[in-house]
Amino acid sequence: xxxxxxxxxxxxxxxxxxxxxxxxxxxxxxxxxxxxxxxxxxxxxxxxxxxxxxxxxxxxxxxxxxxxxxxxxxxxxxxxxxxxxxxxxxxxxxxxxxxxxxxxxxxxxxxxxxxxxxxxxxxxxxxxxxxxxxxxxxxxxxxxxxxxxxxxxxxxxxxxxxxxxxxxxxxxxxxxxxxxxxxxxxxxxxxxxxxxxxxxxxxxxxxxxxxxxxxxxxxxxxxxxxxxxxxxxxxxxxxxxxxxxxxxxxxxxxxxxxxxxxxxxxxxxxxxxxxxxxxxxxxxxxxxxxxxxxxxxxxxxxxxxxxxxxxxxxxxxxxxxxxxxxxxxxxxxxxxxxxxxxxxxxxxxxxxxxxxxxxxxxxxxxxxxxxxxxxxxxxxxxxxxxxxxxxxxxxxxxxxxxxxxxxxxxxxxxxxxxxx
Length: 420
Fold this sequence. Notes:
The protein is an all-alpha fold. The chain is built from 18 helices and no strands.
């Protein structure tokens, strides 16, 4: 396969896939189902929050170590789409199984099992999805295609969330005879996610070309892939710029993930936001993040991904600092929505930078390590925020720790090779 063979249809289908699978983290792990689990399924909200956190930590641990292995195996086997199909199917089936989670503590284990499996399917699937990018897009358009993909992702996740809220959760008369007393409108949203992913992921498997298949059997590809990964780790100094970039990303993505995980809590606790206002805030910041990802896509190709990331981190630090000292809901909105503009470019440009840095025959393995850098220390940001919040008895002090990760990531990124 060559990049020329992808065509507009293949590239569009690749971007559309981001809008398909983003429904899972938006509806299941961030907004609706997470709230349903903690409020209606678990014994108590406190126990539910703790159980949800433990489940997400388990999933992150599995993803961190399995991602590089599967990526290396795919490099030796050649094809990406069969692996992507398998893990996407895992996420779809897991979402559908969440329908059977009734508002009963006895169903908590069932729910957490399929949330973990679905998260693994979503995240490891992204290893193979990301590895397709440098094989599809011309070098001078990597930034644009990556940014458009992130934009589709935000838009798809929000569209699915909007349908779930308006069509099921907040509907005066729930469709299909769903019984609110059994939380069926909320549970049906998990089925909606499964259908959404299946429908909008399909074009990628039909129209987006794959890497050529190698002559190796599955067993041989697995042995050689794992051997290659071990060799890469042993000779990591040969990939010094990639290692520095992944470490920098580990820091600033930890800060970014913490910001998203606790942004709503901060808005409610320090600015008196209601649940409806928190959801509105979540929708708003995702919209500005989508606009930023698309808008900065051309900037990425113009000045390079490294400079795009640095500019975005500076923007996040400036507006994040303003939010720490802001008073009143008006100023929260004034600073929070522009902050979102810089969230999308950080993520999109990081992906295009990895695509530019990775050797041509190691895209799967390198994007596996890329997944590792996003999950290996996912506990650090929330743990530090919680400790500082308790130490100073202040949410503002706790949220200030996010800035530490963003600044540290920026400083470690500075010596990384500028690839354009």
